[in-house]
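Hello K.,

You asked for the raw outputs rather than the summary table, so here they are, unedited. I folded two proteins back to back in the same session to keep the settings identical. This is the first:
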Amino acid sequence: MLLTVIIIYGCNSPGRESTGTSLLAEDVKNYCRTDIAFTHIEDVVTKEQSDQMSTFLFAETLKYFYLAFSGSDVNPENHVFNTEAHPCRISNFDRQLVRERLGIN
């Protein structure tokens, strides 16, 4: 859901906070934080917490929150995000080199 907000509004858009990004951050702090780490919710109705911390929390979720609140110029108009939320600048892609490395003629 957080990535959807970034895709729709970009990272530096003035309307991004009114879209619920701040609410998502508060919910992560309120419902996913434990005494020693963060976890995910097993049941959204009861807010029961899991007993594990998924690796994607750091690899993706916190990175998206950073992008959403940092005022970064990274946005979907000039970047592509890989599966671990690493932004790759579109202008840096060499289409011919990609085709060669993938074996596409």
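The second followed immediately with the same parameters:
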Amino acid sequence: MNNENGMTDDDSRMALRSRFRIGIFVLIALILLIGGYGYYHVEAERIRQEKYQDIAAIGELKAGQIQYWRQQRLADARRAARSPFFSASAERMAPITRRSGPERRLAAAVAA
């Protein structure tokens, strides 16, 4: 039988099924798109936090290395200042009568 659109009942049922399938497909596609978008944002934030933690750990390690290096250089300077060779060289470089304030402090530090 033909209905008012000039379609048979089978044609209208097939058109309805086809529209229903297209609607289901569009709905599933939208759900997947929204889910993918949400997943992307969650993962992007997780990766950002992970990289921040990596950089923070590297910064802490570098700060420790610099601190250790500085302590070693200060120990080297103390050792050199206590050396009799350094003291003798400093004495020869600055005669007692011509020493300025910083030179006197250096000589006092070397003599101590």
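Residues 9-82 form one domain.

Happy to rerun anything if the numbers look odd on your end.

Regards,
P.
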